[in-house]
Amino acid sequence: MPKDIPVSNGSFLLNFDSDYQIRDIYFPFIGQENHSSGHPFQFGVWADGRYSWMGSEWEKTLRYQDNSLVTDVFLKNEALGLELRCSDVVDLDLNIYIKKIEVTNLKNAARPVRLFFSHDFCLYGNDIGGTAYFDPRTCSIIHYKFNRYFLISCWAHDEWGVKHFACGKRGISKNLETFKDTENGELSGVASAWGSPHSTIGIWLELPPKGTTNAYYWMAAGMNYPEVAKLNLEVHNIMPEKLLKRSSKYWQTWIHKDSLQLQGLPKSVTDIYNRSLLILRTQIDNHGAIIAATDSDIIRFGKDTYSYMWGRDGAFVAAALSKAGYSHPCMKYFDFCARILSDEGYLFQHYNPDGSLASNWHSWLVEGKEVLPIQEDSTALTLWALWIYYQSMKDVEFIRPLYSKLIKKAADFLVSYRDPQTHLPLPSYDLWEERYALHTYTVASVIAGLRAAANFAKLFQDTSLAEKYGSVADEITVGIGKHLYHKGLKRFARSGSRIEGGYKLDEVIDISLLSLATLGVLDPKHPRMIETAQAVREQLWLKTPIEGCARYQDDFYQRAEDSPKDRPGNPWFISTLWLAEYYIDLAENKEELQVALPYLKWCVKNSLPSGVLAEQVHPISGSPLCVSPLTWSHSAFIWTVLRYSEKDKALKKQ
Q1: Cα separation, 3 vs 13, whole angstroms
Q2: How many CB atoms lie within 10 A of CB 499?
Q3: Do residues 410 and 321 share a domain?
Q4: CA dihedral (139, 144, 147, 151) positive or negative
Q5: Helix, strand, or coil (residue 401)
Q6: CB 531 within 8 A of CB 520
Q7: Fewer CB under 10 Å: which end of the chain, C or N?
C-alpha cells in the first residue's frame, strides 16, 4: 500500500498509507528504527451506535496544504453523516507529531461522536519487552522500551489529556485486544500492558446540528520520561494550533526561500516540483543521511528495506537540491559521505542513517574470485554531485576540508580501480544491483567523477593532480568507443564481461545508456549517441494506455501477475525522466525542447493526489508499485525541471 503523505522534521517521521493510517514511525534517525514495523495505527469513528475504521467506507482525499508539509486530508462517511478535515505535521523544532481533526455533523440533530486512535508499537522494530500505560502525571498514554518513549495525548472541548483509554496485549493471532470494545464505542480503562502491548485512546465529542467541533491529538517522541513529559508541556504552553501554524509558515518560507523562476512550464509541473522539494526534505536525516525510501512495505519482498543511504541515490538528490539552491542538507550529506568513505576511497553499497554499514546485498566472491562488493557509480557520483554543489553555491570554504578527506581519496580510488590492459574501470555491481560486470553507465559516472575531481584540483592549484584526473578521464572515454560500442547493433552496449582481448557485450537495451549524454561524456548529437537513444525509446517505451519508460528489456522486478508479458517491464519515473533529460540536452530550438515536456507531464499524471512519486507504476492501471515516495524519483523530477528551465532560458537568448 503506497505511503501517500509523509510528515517529518529530520528526526521524527511518520508515513500514512492510502487509508490514512499511520504505518511507519521513525525516531531518532530517519529510516532507522521503525517503531511500528509497518503495522497500521488505526483511526476510527463511532456515531449513533455504529463504528467505522478508516477504509473503503470513507471517501478520502489525501493531500498537503499548498507549499507546506502540513497535510490537508478530507474524509467523508455518508452512512455516519460525518465529514472530517484533518491536518498533520511534525513540529519543525520539537519531536512532536500533531493532528488537528475538524469534525462536521451533516445531520440536523445534535449528537455525540467518538474518535478512536489505536497504537500498535514495535519499539526498536520488534514487539518484545515493551510497556504501555496510562500516566496520571501527564494524563497521557505512554509506550516505552529502553531509551525510546512515545507519549500520546489529546485536547477537546477545552479539556486537556486522555480521558478514555485501554491498554492491551497483542494476541497470538496478532489481533489487538482493545478492538472489540472500541467497535462498541467504549474503552475498558485498563491502565497498563506489557510484553507486546498496544493501546487505544478515545476523544468524546458533542456535535451541534450541522455544526463543527475541533479536536487535537499528538504524539511526542523522546529518549526518556522527562523528555516526553517536557514535550507534552510544550504543547500545553504553545497550544496545538500555534504549533501547526508555525510549521506551515516555516515550510511555505522554505519552499520560496529563493526567487527561482521556472521558465516555460505549466503550473501542474511546477506544483509537483515544489512538492518534490518538500517530500525530499522529509526523507533526509538531520545528521546528513539521504534515505532512498522509508516505505516499510518493501519488507514483504526480501526481509529488507530501502531505508538506507545509497551513495548513488544520495548524490542525485544532493545534485538536485544544490541546483535548486538548498545548501544546508547538501553540506550535511557531503560531510556524512566523508565520514563513511573507506580508507581505500570507496563507498559500500549502502549505509544506515547513523553511518554504520548496512546489510550488503553483494557478494565478495564472483565465480570463486574475490571482488569488491561495491557499485562504483556511488563513489564517482558523489564527486560529480559535489562539483555541482560548488558550481551552485561557490562555497570554497566548505569544500576545502573535503578536498583531502573525500575528493582526492575517492578520485585516487577511481584512478587505481582499472583494468591494466583496457584502462577501463574494473567490474562492479550495476546501478540496478543485479549484475557484476563492466557497465557503460558506471563508466560514464567514473568519467564524470574524475572530471569533477580535476576541476577541484584546478580550484586548489593542484596542477599535477588535475592533469592526472583529466587524462585518466580522457583515456576511459576513448575506451568506451573502443570496447563498449556494439558495431552489429550500431549502438552502445549495456555492459561487458572481460574476455581475452576485450569484452563480451551484453546486448540488452537499458535506459542507463543515456547517461553517456546526460553525464556529459558524449555529445547528445553524436551519431552513436543518437542511435543508442533511438533504440532506448523504441524498445523501452510502453505501448499501453499508461505508457512510460521501462528500465530495460525483460525487467521482472515488481512485475504484477496481470502485467502484459510482451512488455519490457513496468514504467519507472526515473527512466521516463532520463528520456526527457536526453531530449532537453539534444534540443537546439524551442520546438525541439517541447519534445521533453510530455515526459514531465507523464510524471504529474502518475503522481499520487498528494504529489508523491513512487518508484514505478503498473503498466495497465497506473497504480503505484514498490516504494513511495522514492527520493530518486523526486530528485530526478527536480533535476529535469531545472534542466528544462535552464535550456528554455538559453534558447531565448539565441
Answers
A1: 12
A2: 9
A3: yes
A4: negative
A5: helix
A6: no
A7: C
Q: Per-residue pLDDT tens for 319-362?
A: 999 999 999 999 999 999 999 999 999 999 999 999 999 999 99
Cα 505 from Cα 517, distance rounded (Å): 20
Are both 108 and 219 inside the same structural domain?
A: yes
* Mean pLDDT value across residues 599-623: 97
**Alpha-carbon gap, residue 628 to 635, rounded angstroms:** 13
Across 599-604, average pLDDT:
98
| Cell, residue 452 | 569533477
What is the 3-state secondary structure of 363-377?
CCEECCEECCCCCHH
Instruction: Give the per-residue pLDDT at 623.
Output: 95
DSSP state of 315: H
Position 294 in a domain:
no
Q: How far apart are CA 516 and CA 525, in angstroms?
A: 11
> Does residue 349 contact residue 358 with C-beta atoms inside 8 Å?
yes
Residue 487 zone, left/alpha/beta (φ > 0; ψ -120 to 50; rest): alpha
Question: Could you tell me the three cell numbers for 131?
Answer: 510497556
Q: Is the model's pLDDT at 176 over the cut of 70?
A: no
What residue numbers bound the domain in which 379 lies? Answer: 309-357+370-508
Taking phi over 0 as left and psi of -120 to 50 as alpha, with beta for the rest, 625 belongs to beta
Which cell numbers hold the place of 378? 556511488
Q: Answer for the pair 86, 7: CB distance below 8 angstroms, yes or no.
A: no
CB atoms within 10 A of CB 100: 21
Three cell numbers written together for 457: 584540483
Cell triple for residue 599? 515526459
Taking residue 50's Cβ as centre, other Cβ atoms within 10 Å add up to 12
Number of structural domains (the chain) is 3
The structure's pTM equals 0.96
State which H helix or E strand residue 499 sits in.
strand 495-499
CB 313 within 8 A of CB 631: yes
Asked if residue 500 and residue 530 are part of one domain, the reply reads no
Grid cell at residue 196: 507486546
pLDDT tens sequence across 529-577: 999 999 999 999 999 999 999 999 999 999 988 888 889 999 999 999 9
